[in-house]
């Protein structure tokens, strides 16, 4: 199983608001993966991390099964972000689209110059853990071996998250 997090807090090339941006990302990712069957989580409205005056985010996760090489998947995600209007200038800045590989078939990848899997901060982010629990409640972090409920119980209290729509 491959887990991708999806987030936005700005309008962009694909929509007038972050929710539309995320919905289009689901669509375009499916097309890039040759209409691979995907499970999309409910969406959440979340506060920025670290806390800032940025607009609120819309976040969710996508699950799918594929044998696409992880580096190729990363290239697809980066291309989609670019096409959606993302311009990378500063870390943790507002963005029209953010796509991250959270997990890739329970593999641990640390020897790549381009990515680390599982995502090195996923276990610290409510905006990843809550939607993931909605669609894959029995998932266990491949490194820590902790359940989603355990990881959620360890989250810092300053992460605002609520269901969207």
Automatic annotation (TrEMBL):
Family that this chain belongs to: Belongs to the HPPK family.
One record GO biological process: folic acid biosynthetic process
Name of the gene this protein is made from: folK
Protein origin, superkingdom: Bacteria
Pathway, per record: Cofactor biosynthesis; tetrahydrofolate biosynthesis; 2-amino-4-hydroxy-6-hydroxymethyl-7,8-dihydropteridine diphosphate from 7,8-dihydroneopterin triphosphate: step 4/4
Enzyme class at the top of the EC tree: transferase
A Pfam family per the record: HPPK
Protein name from the UniProt record: 2-amino-4-hydroxy-6-hydroxymethyldihydropteridine pyrophosphokinase
Coiled coil: none
All copies of domain 7,8-dihydro-6-hydroxymethylpterin-pyrophosphokinase, residue ranges: 3-136
Record InterPro entries: Hppk, Hppk_sf
Gene3D superfamilies per the UniProt record, alphabetical: 7,8-Dihydro-6-hydroxymethylpterin-pyrophosphokinase HPPK (3.30.70.560)
Source organism (scientific name): Commensalibacter melissae
Alphabetical keyword list: ATP-binding, Folate biosynthesis, Kinase, Nucleotide-binding, Transferase
UniProt xrefs under NCBIfam families: folK
Function statement: Catalyzes the transfer of pyrophosphate from adenosine triphosphate (ATP) to 6-hydroxymethyl-7,8-dihydropterin, an enzymatic step in folate biosynthesis pathway.
Record flagged with keyword Lipoprotein: no
Annotated GO MF terms: 2-amino-4-hydroxy-6-hydroxymethyldihydropteridine diphosphokinase activity; ATP binding; kinase activity
E.C. number: 2.7.6.3
